[in-house]
Amino acid sequence: MIEFQHVNFAYEKDRPVIRDLSFRIESGESVGLIGANGAGKSTVMKLLLGLLPCEGQILVDDTPVTKETLKTIRRKLGFVLQNSDNQMFMPTVYEDMIFAPLNYMVSREEAEKRVDAVLARLGLTELKYRHNHKISGGEKRMAAIATILAMEPEAILMDEPTSALDPYNRRVVINTIRELSQTKIITSHDLDMILDTCDRVLLLSEGQIVADGPAGEILRDQALLESHRMELPLSLSRRE
Ligand SMILES: Nc1ncnc2c1ncn2[C@@H]1O[C@H](COP(=O)(O)OP(=O)(O)O)[C@@H](O)[C@H]1O
Ligand SMILES: [Mg+2]
What is the CATH number for 126? Predict the structure, then answer.
């Protein structure tokens, strides 16, 4: 469903960030994109959303991501960026959540139902009419996740979804992600979360994929992880 073909990208001339990157993700896969700070994870997400111009080709359902196709493609992809502050553009959580469903021709009644169901599922009913600029960072992150779930996209992209969350909300998000049947790409250095939510892992280092395989194998490979500035998930590290 998602394919990168020889993608190159640099923010600044002569400082390549993504280097000849190729991979393919099939419909329904849940893929964890891991790597140290600065490896290029967020950049991969932004490239996929057509937010940055690049060399090479990116395909979503065999359609190349270009200016002309962007609108159709974004409709298929629900995304939570690393900084969700920039993502909420309506005054309240409710208005943000209902915007996409209404825009995509769902009836108001159906849209309201979806919003209420998602809020209940995430334990956020109390946030419904709160103002987006008056809620905490963690609450904003939860609201951003709620917004994409209400959209019911074909694929879900989450960049560090649990980074601002307390342990309780982190668990709620993990359980919710596990229940979603859509294609998922999740970046994180919370490798326990990746282990809980993803079947496959792509390990990114200096803009290249250095490992691609089952999550249970890659996340157990201590030498591989440590050579790329990461550590075993806590749940897999043996403590004496
Ligand atoms: N707007 C920007 N301008 C210049 N360099 C950037 C910008 N955003 C990110 N970078 C650089 O690109 C590299 C990859 O960043 P990023 O994709 O955010 O990494 P990750 O999400 O894996 O931590 C880093 O070296 C980072 O400093
Ligand atoms: Mg990042």
Answer: 3.40.50.300
Q: Is the pTM of this model over 0.85?
A: yes
Compute the distance from residue 179 Cα to the ligand 2 centre, in Å: 24
Query: What burial class does residue 40 get, using C-beta atoms within 10 Å of its C-beta: 0-12 exposed, 13-18 middle, 19+ buried?
Result: buried
Nearest CA to 30 among 220, 160, 169, 215? Answer: 215
Question: What separation in Å is there between the alpha carbon of 120 and the centre of ligand 2?
Answer: 29
Measured in degrees and rounded to the nearest 5, phi and psi for residue 41 equal -60, -50
Taking the centre of ligand 1 as the mean of its atom positions, its distance from the CA of residue 51, in whole angstroms, is 14
The amino acid that residue 95 corresponds to is E
Taking residue 229's Cβ as centre, other Cβ atoms within 10 Å add up to 13
Which residues constitute the domain of residue 56?
2-236
Q: Which of 42, 79, 187 to mutate to test the pocket of ligand 1 (most atoms within 8 A of CB)?
A: 42
Count of domains forming the chain: 1
Q: Which atom of ligand 1 is nearest to the CA of 37?
A: 23
Q: pLDDT tens digits, residue range 157-216?
A: 999 999 889 999 999 999 999 999 999 999 998 999 999 999 999 999 999 999 999 999
